[in-house]
């Protein structure tokens, strides 16, 4: 809210983390603000313009839901990554959102990926990934590439208590190794020279076009 009240600039609230990672606290609120009043949306666009070229990769965690704010972020993104769990509701919600995105004219041809989280085995991860990919292909004609899985691990809870990223808390833990593997899979698909000119600009243009 401090950004929207013009008390601070978006760039000033970025928290510097390990390995050059920057975090905007409460970033999920940006998605909700995409559905807010005209004046707030204008401020949001201007604030985001400050960080448009501040990073090589910008990850936006939209959370669950299919509101217009979520769709704006996903339609404008270069890539869309679904994080699913073995819970059946996760598969249903993810498919529902993907179906909603396919009703957006600007979404056609966008790469879609999946990561399976909190799994107990490789077999479970493969099963969830396959079911999501099969549904997307059969009913939407959308290919979904799986980028990996993350095992359920008590290390996460221990790291949370210590307020430390689990990859730093226990770098050799299964969950840390899994996460690094997913990160490598994502980086292999990056095209920085294209992203610098288009990745966040499309989102800004989409929001401005609705004002």
Structure in words:
The protein has 211 residues and is mainly α. It folds into two domains: 1-55, no CATH class; 72-202, P-loop containing nucleotide triphosphate hydrolases (Rossmann fold), CATH 3.40.50. Helix content is 48%, strand content 12%. The protein is built from ten helices and five strands. It has helices spanning 28-33, 38-49, 68-76, 88-101, 122-140, 155-161, 166-169, 174-187, 192-198, 201-210; strands at residues 15-16, 22-23, 80-84, 112-119, 144-151. The chain has a three-stranded parallel beta sheet with strand order 3-4-5. The chain has a two-stranded antiparallel sheet with strand order 1-2. Strand 3, helix 4 (88-101) and strand 4 form a beta-alpha-beta unit. It is globular and about 50 Å long. The protein starts with 14 loop residues before the first strand and ends with a helix. The model has no long low-confidence stretch (mean pLDDT 84).
